[in-house]
Amino acid sequence: MTASATTLQEERAGLDAYSRVVAGVAERLLPAVASLRVMAPVDGGRRPVGSGSAVALTPDGFLLTSAHVVARAHGGTAVLTDGRELDFSVVGADPLSDLAVLRVAAGDLPAAELGDAGELVVGQLVVAVGSPLGFAGSVSAGVVSAVGRSFPTRAGRTARLVENVIQTDAALHPGSSGGALADSAGRVVGINTALVGPGAGQGLGLAVPVDTVSRGIIAALVRDGRVRRGYIGVAGGARPLPPRAAAATGRQHGVEVLSVVTDSPADAAGLRPEDLILSLDGQGVAGVADLQRLLTDERIDRPITLEVWRSGDVQLLEARPLELPAD
């Protein structure tokens, strides 16, 4: 066999293996991904206001989608690949994470398995499953082109960064939002949320990661229909600690306070610009995402201890977080 023939055979074998993985993920996930027709009330009736995708979370009728897909809507219709058309209601939506939970009247949904986006590596194969342009059962494949990205979200006057966003070159189209981004085992590691471009990374898609933080958000939406977050009133950014601070504390990173909101819990606690927040209630804070993760509803209106590096020394400050306003 010639060298060129051997190379061609190897390429075909590789393509076959790739195709088998993508086909296996599609077979596993397509029944669990619904096409959404989103409706809004108008003049006593309802009219369509958009479309998207959703992923079945549980057999008893809970689905996960993007919050922006169902913004200002009260319900609509979820179309499954088995032909069923089920009316859905919005259980809860969280624009600050761009996640929403829906409910349909069904007890036998083919629920997807959730994975862990924290295990993804750049270059890893991922498969996007959704209903772009209203067509149910669309599949595209690509790789993780970057991890650890972030994008801003807003609910009224409140803004937040969604952290650890997955960037992929798997093709996304209008209607893909709310659909699944899966690993090669068919586990959902992200919820597709946006297409980047034109002009800046055109053809790249973003997905909200399925991780510890988003699992907590999903659980709160299922349980309460909303997400409560603590608020201390600082703007800051991750920063490596100066050598002296690292040696004294055993930590490598902290959050540098850039500004403090007047009359906020941080202001009352005595936080100042240029302070470095090292920990919250003894748990290390290496970036803004850590602060967001730790400021949960359990800490609202309860004293917390902030470990701060200031002027060459460690100081302990007490703050009492308020509830982050929803608008």
Q: Can you list the strand order of the major beta sheet? A: 1-2-3-6-5-4
Mind telling me which CATH architecture of the largest domain this is?
Beta Barrel
What share of the residues lie within helices? 10-25%
Order of helices and strands: HEEEEEEEEEEEEHEEHEHEEHEEE
- Mean pLDDT score: 88
Number of helices: 5
Largest sheet geometry: 6 strands, antiparallel, barrel
Structural class: alpha+beta
- Unreliable runs, pLDDT <50, ≥5 residues? none
CATH class of the largest domain: Mainly Beta
The whole-angstrom Rg is: 22 Å
**How far from one another are the termini?**
69 Å
Number of domains: 2
Percent strand equals 35-45%
How many extended strands? 20
CATH fold assignment of the largest domain: Thrombin, subunit H
Anisotropy-based shape: globular
Task: Describe the protein.
The chain has 327 residues and is an alpha+beta fold. It folds into two domains: 1-227, Beta Barrel (Thrombin, subunit H), CATH 2.40.10; 230-323, PDZ domain (Pdz3 Domain, Roll). The protein is built from five helices and 20 strands. The chain has helices spanning 3-29, 212-224, 243-249, 265-269, 288-294; strands spanning 33-42, 45-56, 62-65, 75-79, 85-94, 99-104, 125-130, 138-155, 158-168, 180-182, 188-196, 204-209, 230-231, 234-240, 253-260, 276-280, 283-284, 304-310, 313-319, 322-323. The strands form four sheets. A six-stranded antiparallel barrel has the order 1-2-3-6-5-4. Strands 7-8-9-12-11-10 form a six-stranded antiparallel barrel. A hairpin with a 5-residue loop joins strand 4 and strand 5 (85-94). The longest helix is centred in the N-terminal third of the chain and has 27 residues, at 3-29. The radius of gyration is 22 Å and the shape is globular. The mean pLDDT is 88.
